[in-house]
Specification:
The complex is a heterotrimer of chains A (about 350), B (about 260) and C (about 600). With about 350 residues, chain A is mostly helical. In chain A, about 75% of the residues lie in helices and about 0% in strands. The chains are: A mainly alpha (about 350), B alpha/beta (about 260), C alpha/beta (about 600).
Chain lengths: ~350, ~260, ~600
């Protein structure tokens, strides 16, 4: 074999359409865009949690304490919360408080908000992390299997069953799945406790209630992506090489579904973070979710501000983690955005 | 008199330069072919002329009037040029009857049309491109690729353009359909006295239809001249390379660096 | 409206009618029973007089569920309307805004999208308080970012289309473009989305009321009933399951409506495809004649090849009919034809690469002594993997974007030739070197996107060279490439052929290219072989009118510029004929064809 003369055209890659990010590499420009977004999101989160009190129609303190509370109590509470100061001063106080880890005091219980959150945060984090792990561990094999079944000419019945099952799990909201789980495993079979948190047995139902919906949805995404990949020309190339099936699937197909799965899955998993609110209420798990719900019902604004802020930060952390994985995993980081 | 005059045109998309310092003249009733490979900037020239791409430097004149910028005189001038697109499948709104698409082209005339006048005009145009005018109410899905391309030509003609730009109009078509579209363009040119800027990567097609040819590469014009003369004796090595790369029916392709195993 | 007559459409219509009936008549029919208290009947279990049992005031839960339909569905409709209107207005505004304000708006929406929807709902609920209207506003507003993104994506995919650009060139303003082109083209997907989002909204409402943040006592919706019922889950499970089932049912109806509005999707199409693929396999396959019956000297051959695809209605469409083709060792065979001629399918079948849903039948289909109709044994796979190379049309998609060039070029040697990593790499380097890629060592670490189109196509040929190719099938290998790059790639292919003595099957739509590169040319049309010719003498020896038409209507560097091109008139159903353009002074004779070429697309 001999070497042919090189092409007269430039041997480098074809020039890609350049965006406003100038000549940065795709990876750097992706990182830059996402960092910008993270900073802006943080800003929005802080602003939103600060302003939520001011957006409440009427007098938030009066609303919180009820129409029967004496005027002096309302005045004192307002002074305690610093709501009588000029807006700019309130904001600087709020931000400096945040930086010191001071989230204020509950109107209703007079407890320190940061302390309440600190005592409940680990439970929520554990629930979310377990749900996250279960959803991910279930979705990948399920989705890939579903894709293979869908493409097999003889797998019509199996395909209908799998797609139907996934469809039901996606369509039924988490609180109904949870009620169903309790009805079956606690009421009917008496296997698992319907409420509580602490021992491993009591964690099973909440984690399943949290994870099943997102898992099914993610599995569907994996399935769709996998079918797309299986139909692509490069998979035909791999088949033309007559590689063993396991190599075709795991080396050639799997890496190509990671980007889409993570991009969509990331959104789903940050949704799962918020889903803990519902699950904790259903299963009486002593986490931040229950605190938030009762705070909203009693209009305990400092508590709401604190918990919403922590939830939003958790979401941003999940998004950041997904972005970091994307940057490492995808050689192109060709994640397209508006 | 020059129908279309492009002077030192440059087009930039952000940091990327697509066209730099291109000049071109298209006289009335003539066809100028613009030939080049992908990324040579030939489509950017077309888009810049009709205002779909940003002009960063240079001037484009239609009948001596500048067509660059936002002023209404420039806009009027731009409307005197109409563009035919490459892909007849995406060039017609799938939800709009083809007659309505052609009628939309009359907007470019700047005149007000009565409903009846417009309807008559649409029929006339469809007949001109050999599409049954009774099918004006049908959606594009009911037509073949070649018919669709003729309908887009009718739409372009509806604007009563001074200059027609045909941007790779045959490259999405099968050869058997290509010839009907080429014949139609020649026929229209003859009967309507149109001036055509014909853009293609296919040297043989450009040669067949054009009076003059300009060869583009890397955003600039490599050489220009009367078709026969230029292709018979190209002065630029790139033109020569292009010519040498076109396969000829029944002639064994030769590769300079013949194999020495 | 035909879509509503399918089983799914009928089910969706019936379900929607039932829900509408409940909204209109529910409170009138069951309202009284729902309010009637009876201390004696407190906490009655399900069954008998009370289908779902009774609550702590002795009220019939089934009647309450039926009565609650109105409030639940009206709130759903309200929130969906808020979300849809907001999404359409903001999304379409974004689509027609100039570049920078548009980017900013999309950026903001994307940022909001990163936050879970439930968190947004909770945030808005804080502002308006835990009331029914508060929840409606909260859920509606929280849906806006998502719907905005969707509308924006739909609208910008439409406004990128050439027909919108054509309208702009004709002088149409942004509003005309919006109302005449964008809206009609996104209306259907929007309708589907509205229905889907109604389903989500309904469930969200139920969830919010369930959490005690939505509808407040004494009013009640399905979510509240579920919340009340769950407290008695041990004594009367139906008190919770009843409302739960109704919520799921209503959600399902909205989803089904969405599905019924979406054309050609869902399980039905897939099922039909599956059926069709199974049916003819069983009996229709002719008894295997065995490889011995054909041309013994041929390296690869197919005889009487048919390739069919399910037509979506349970039948089959034959795309290749009775094609026979053989390739002798070292021979270069070209297959030429226009789109839809079946040339690519023939090549794929020859290489044994067609899979379900394609239905392939042939009297003989073999490569060397391997019967391609039977599942290959391990040893046969090894030989097919090394001896048969395939180059696809689009170099941008034929290499795996997630794997390095090096990995893709070492696989064959490692899997089939049993080479170690180092030797396989050496072979890959030699392969890249042979196809003229500079610095092959360094290039092994690159990903395909770092290669230009021509380089990728060369890498594909190099990949075939890492085996021991005896046949290389190249399906339109240069169609996506420029003519100068095409020549380089063909040179590489010719070089590879000389070096390995492999046979080549080259598929192309370009009859000039095929005649210039190949020894023998097979002309195909509409799934059949029209004729086979000596490549060099194609102009002289072509006898079939279709081939002659193809040759005549193709302008080349010698065409007479003063005369119209001949055209192929495909009007007579009996067969194609060449119509001289000059005849009757009508150069576009083909336009008389009343039927479109793509009838099947209707």
């Amino acid at each position: 074999m001999t070497t042919l003369p090189r092409s007269p055209r430039p041997a480098g890659p074809a020039p890609a359409p350049v965006r406003w990010t100038g000549r940065l590499s795709p990876r750097a420009s992706f990182a830059l865009r996402r960092t910008g977004r993270l900073v802006a999101s943080l800003l929005i989160v802080v602003l939103a949690s600060f302003f939520v009190v001011h957006l409440v129609p009427g007098d938030p303190v009066r609303a919180a304490l009820g129409p029967t509370a004496p005027v002096t109590l309302v005045e004192n509470t307002r002074a305690d919360l610093g709501l009588d100061a000029p807006l700019r001063e309130q904001f600087t106080d709020y931000v400096s408080g945040l930086l010191r880890g001071d989230l204020g005091t509950s109107i209703q219980t007079r407890q320190d908000v940061a302390e309440v959150i600190a005592s409940r945060f680990p439970t929520t984090l554990a629930l979310a992390a377990l749900g996250f792990a279960v959803a991910l561990a279930g979705a990948l094999p399920l989705g890939m299997a579903a894709a293979l079944v869908a493409r097999s000419p003889r797998g019509r019945v199996a395909d209908t069953v799998v797609s139907g099952g996934l469809g039901v799990l996606i369509a039924v909201p988490d609180f109904l799945i949870s009620v169903g789980l309790i009805a079956v495993f606690s009421v009917w079979l008496g296997l698992l406790p319907p409420a509580g948190w602490g021992d491993p047995g009591s964690a099973v139902l909440p984690v399943l209630g949290l994870a099943l919906g997102p898992m099914a949805y993610l599995a569907r995404i994996v399935q769709v992506e996998m079918v797309k990949v299986l139909d692509s020309t490069y998979m035909a190339t791999a088949r033309a090489k007559r590689l063993p099936r396991r190599i075709v699937l795991f080396r050639h197909a799997l890496p190509n579904i990671v980007t889409a799965t993570l991009t969509v899955g990331g959104l789903l998993l940050s949704g799962l973070t918020a889903g803990t609110v519902v699950i904790e209420t259903v299963f009486a798990v002593p986490g931040m979710g229950g605190t938030l719900i009762s705070a909203v019902q009693t209009k305990d604004y400092p508590m709401i501000q604190g918990v919403v802020l922590v939830f939003a930060l958790m979401v941003l952390a999940v998004n950041l983690a997904v972005d970091l994985i994307l940057i490492t995993v995808d050689p192109r980081t060709s994640i397209s955005e508006g | 008199m020059t129908a279309l005059e492009i002077e030192n045109l440059s087009v930039r998309y952000g940091a990327r330069s697509a066209v730099s310092d291109v000049s071109l003249r298209l006289d009335h009733g003539r066809t100028v072919g613009l030939v080049g490979e992908s990324g040579s900037g030939k489509s950017s020239v077309a888009n810049a002329v009709v205002g779909l791409a940003p002009v960063s430097a240079g001037d484009i004149r239609v009948n001596g009037v500048s067509a660059v910028g936002r002023r209404s005189r420039a806009r009027q001038a731009r409307l005197r040029i109409q563009l035919i697109f490459q892909d007849p499948y995406s060039a017609l709104d799938p939800r709009m009857p083809v007659g309505a698409s052609v009628a939309e082209g009359t907007l470019a005339t700047g005149r007000r049309w009565s409903r009846e006048a417009r309807r008559r005009r649409v029929r006339e145009l469809l007949e001109q491109v050999h599409v049954d005018p009774d099918r004006a109410g049908a959606l594009p899905g009911a037509f073949s690729g070649g018919q669709r391309q003729r309908i887009t030509i009718a739409r372009a003609l509806a604007g009563e353009p001074e200059v027609l730009i045909a941007d790779e109009v045959t490259s999405a078509l099968d050869v058997s359909v290509q010839s009907t579209v080429l014949n139609l363009l020649r026929e229209l040119q003859r009967t309507l006295g149109l001036s055509i800027l014909f853009i293609s990567h296919d040297l043989a097609v450009v040669r067949y239809i054009s009076d003059e040819v300009s060869v583009m590469r890397h955003g600039g014009i490599v050489e220009s001249g009367p078709t026969e003369a230029l292709l018979a004796a190209p002065s630029d090595p790139y033109t020569e390379e292009l010519l040498g790369a076109v396969p000829v029916l029944g002639r064994r392709m030769t590769f300079e660096e013949t194999a020495t195993p | 409206m035909k879509r509503l007559l399918t089983p799914a459409g009928i089910a969706a219509s019936l379900g929607a009618a039932l829900l509408l009936f409940l909204v209109l008549a529910g409170p009138a029919i069951w309202g009284e029973a729902a309010a009637e208290r009876s201390v004696a009947d407190r906490w009655a279990t399900a069954g008998g007089e009370h289908l779902f049992g009774t609550d702590d005031l002795g009220r019939d839960i089934f009647a309450r569920v039926m009565t609650a339909a109105r409030l639940s569905l009206l709130l759903t409709a309200g929130a969906t309307a808020i979300g849809m209107v907001g999404g359409v207005v903001v999304g379409l505004t974004a689509a027609v805004l100039p570049r920078y304000p548009r980017r900013f708006l999309v950026w903001i929406m994307d940022m909001l999208l990163a936050f879970p929807w439930l968190l947004l709902v909770l945030f808005f609920t804080v502002i308006w308080g835990a009331t029914a209207t508060g929840a409606m506003l909260a859920i509606g507003l929280s849906g806006i970012p998502n719907l905005t993104r969707l509308v924006y994506n739909l609208a910008s995919s439409v406004s990128d289309q050439d027909y919108v650009r054509a309208a702009r060139v004709a002088g149409a303003g942004p509003l005309r473009v919006l109302f005449r082109h964008i809206l009609p083209n996104i209306a259907n997907p929007l309708l589907v989305q509205a229905s889907a989002s109604a389903s989500v909204t309904l469930l969200a409402f139920a969830g919010l009321s369930f959490l005690g943040l939505g509808v407040q006592a004494p009013e009640y919706d399905w979510g509240r009933l579920l919340d009340e019922g769950i407290k008695h889950l041990y004594t009367n499970p139906m008190a919770a399951i009843g409302p739960g089932l109704v919520i799921v049912f209503a959600g399902l109806v909205f989803t089904m409506v969405a599905e019924a509005l979406t054309p050609g999707q869902g399980l039905r199409g897939a099922a039909a495809a599956g059926r069709a693929a199974v049916l003819p396999r069983a009996g229709a396959r002719p008894a295997p004649v065995g490889p011995a019956a054909g041309d013994r000297t041929a390296l690869a051959e197919v005889t009487d090849l048919t390739v069919a695809f399910p037509d979506g209605a349970g039948g089959l469409v034959e795309r290749v009919r009775g094609v026979s083709l053989s390739v002798r060792p070292g021979e270069i065979v070209g297959i030429v034809g226009e789109s839809g001629s079946g040339k690519s399918l023939t090549a794929m079948a020859l290489a044994g690469l067609l899979e379900a849903p394609a239905v392939v039948n042939a009297r003989i289909r073999r490569f060397d002594d391997i019967d391609l109709a039977a599942p290959p044994t391990r040893a046969q796979k090894k030989r097919l993997g090394t001896e048969l190379g395939f180059v696809f049309q689009d170099p941008l998609t034929s290499l795996n974007p997630a794997l390095t060039i090096g990995r893709q070029l070492t696989e064959v040697s490692r899997t089939h030739l049993g080479m170690g990593r180092a030797r396989a790499r050496d072979r890959a380097v030699a392969g890249l070197d042979a196809v003229g890629i500079a610095e092959p060592h360094r290039r092994l670490g690159d990903y395909p996107h770092q290669f230009s189109g021509g380089m990728r196509q060369r890498a594909m040929i190099g990949m075939a060279l890492t085996g021991r190719p005896r046949l290389i099938v190249a399906d339109e290998p240069t169609t996506a490439l420029d003519v100068t790059v095409q020549k380089q790639v063909l040179a590489v292919l010719r070089r590879a052929q000389r070096a390995t003595d492999a046979a080549i099957v080259l598929i192309s739509h370009d009859i000039a290219l095929v005649s210039g590169f190949c020894d023998r040319v097979v002309v195909m049309k509409d799934g059949e072989v029209v004729e086979a010719l000596d490549a060099q003498r194609i102009r002289e020896e072509a006898t079939h009118p279709y081939t002659r038409g193809l040759i005549a209507c193709l302008p080349d560097m010698r065409s007479d510029r003063t005369r119209p091109l001949p055209v192929i008139d495909d009007l007579p159903p009996g067969g194609p004929a060449v119509a001289d353009g000059a005849r009757g002074g009508d150069p576009a004779a083909g336009t008389r064809t009343p039927a479109p070429r793509e009838e099947s697309s209707l």
